[in-house]
Amino acid sequence: MKIFLVGPMGSGKSKIGKLLSSQLNLNLIDIDQEIEAKFEKTIVDIFASEGEQGFRKKEIDFLTEMNEIEDAVVSTGGGIIEASANRDILNKEEYVVFLNASVESQFQATKDKTKRPLLNNENPRQVLESLYEHRLELYKSVSNLELSPDLLSNEDIVKEIINFLNV
User: Fold this and answer.
1) Count of domains in the chain?
2) pLDDT digits (tens, 9 = 90+) for 47-66
3) What are the two backbone dihedrals, phi and then psi, of residue 103, each rounded to the nearest 5 degrees?
4) What's the pTM value of the predicted model, to 2 decimals?
5) How are beta strands 145-147 and 72-75 bridged, if at all?
6) In which order are the strands placed within the sheet that holds 72-75?
7) DSSP symbol at 11
8) In the chain, what is the straight-line distance between the N-terminal and C-terminal CA atoms, in Å?
9) Among 74, 81, 103, 126, which is least packed, fewest CB within 10 Å?
10) CATH code at 61?
11) Angle at CA 165, nearest 5°, toward 77 and 32?
């Protein structure tokens, strides 16, 4: 079984992924971490050298490779749903969970982080608002379970996902 976690940056995909993979005894694949490891560069460095488009191409390649993996929890990057190729892949998956965090919650989770290239500017909150407005329907279009980290603890989110999986 593969479970994909989608949602904006700062929504808790990595934390939930760790908890969920541990509970289900599945490998955790964090696409951002995998890209950094494979190319031996941080995401910030990839954005600096190849731009957002270069990074998004790497995301498409990694998500495509997920077809070969049978059992895992896959934590995706916030922008993974930007590419129609990625949405096509996710739409074919049985378990895609959208962690729908408010902009305020995203801002609080990311405000002191420097490894978010899209937020390294003068008004990160405005960027988060714009991305959320643009991506909200895209997240909803690929997911078959939506949960709010604003309303539930990480542990409760994991319980809800496990209930949804019916395992």
Assistant:
1) 1
2) 899 988 999 999 999 999 88
3) -60, -40
4) 0.93
5) unpaired
6) 28-30, 72-75, 2-6, 96-99, 145-147
7) S
8) 10
9) 126
10) 3.40.50.300
11) 15
